[in-house]
Amino acid sequence: MTAQETGKPATTPVDELENELAVALRQFWWLHDARWYQGVKKRFGQEVANEINAEALRFVGRRVGSWYANREGAPDVCSSAALQNVIEAITRIMTNEGMMRSHTEPDPDGGPGVQTVITEHFALRMLRAARSLEGYDCPCLDMRGGWFEGLGVDVRDENRECMRTGGAVCRFHTESVQTASVHSESVHSESVHSESVHTESVETESVERKELYRS
Questions:
Q1: Amino acid 98: pLDDT
Q2: Taking a C-beta distance cutoff of 8 angstroms, is the pair 155, 146 a contact?
Q3: Dihedral class, residue 7 (left if φ above 0, else alpha if ψ from -120 to 50, else beta)
Q4: Measured on CA atoms in the order 72, 154, 163, 52, is the torsion positive or negative?
Q5: How far is CA 29 from CA 8, 53, 67, in A?
Q6: Predicted confidence (pLDDT) per residue in 104-117, tens digit
Q7: Cα separation, 83 vs 71, whole angstroms
């Protein structure tokens, strides 16, 4: 029985999803993906390879997200902790520490959502070795977009830094659309309130000056 059927929150540790066979099959799948990309590039050009690569990874990401949701239940993405847990879990379903080093953490600026920081990625190593890094379009947002579609959650996912384009790391910011909307409305309300207080202060000062002049 899945967590979704029992109504209980997901409790499966990421480590329990790992085993030797799963690690080997995951690596072989990505090796197939790499050779497939090189074959498409050689026959039809890198632009076509980039386009089909993004489509394929979004499809796979959507299937992985759907599988996870059926097993563990759709996460409450309004909770930063739940969002962080599900991103970490799905990341480790698709890769392992030997292939990609990353961590997920609360927004460092104190805002809503979480950020994912990738410090090492096997795909970039492979592309560099194959001399295909130049002109490669990272399909990360497409793959991650597939995750969230499969999970059935509405989030805003942004790539804020990329190693492919010269960044020190790859950095993604993810937050619930609902939480982002509430946060935006709160900031707007505070701004309107601040402007209102400032206007009232100016008007009061003007009245006081007029009264002083009359006296």
A1: 86
A2: no
A3: left
A4: positive
A5: 32, 14, 17
A6: 999 888 888 999 99
A7: 16
> Which 3 state secondary structure label does DSSP give 121?
strand
| Contact (CB, 8 A) for 17 and 85 | no
Q: Which two tokens stand for residue 65?
A: 């997200």
Closest to 176 in 3D by CA, of 151, 210, 153, 200: 153
Say which residues have a Cβ less than 8 Å from residue 198's Cβ, sequence separation at least 6: none
Residues of the chain with pLDDT under 70: 1-18, 179-215
CA 90 to chain centre: 11
Buried b (16+ CB within 10 A) or exposed e, 87-124: bbbbbbbbbbeebbebebeeeeeebbbbbbbbeebbbb
| pTM confidence score | 0.75
Of 134, 18, 141, 3, the C-alpha closest to 75 is 3
State the angle between helix axes of 80-94 and 140-151 in degrees (0 to 180), rounded to the nearest 10: 120
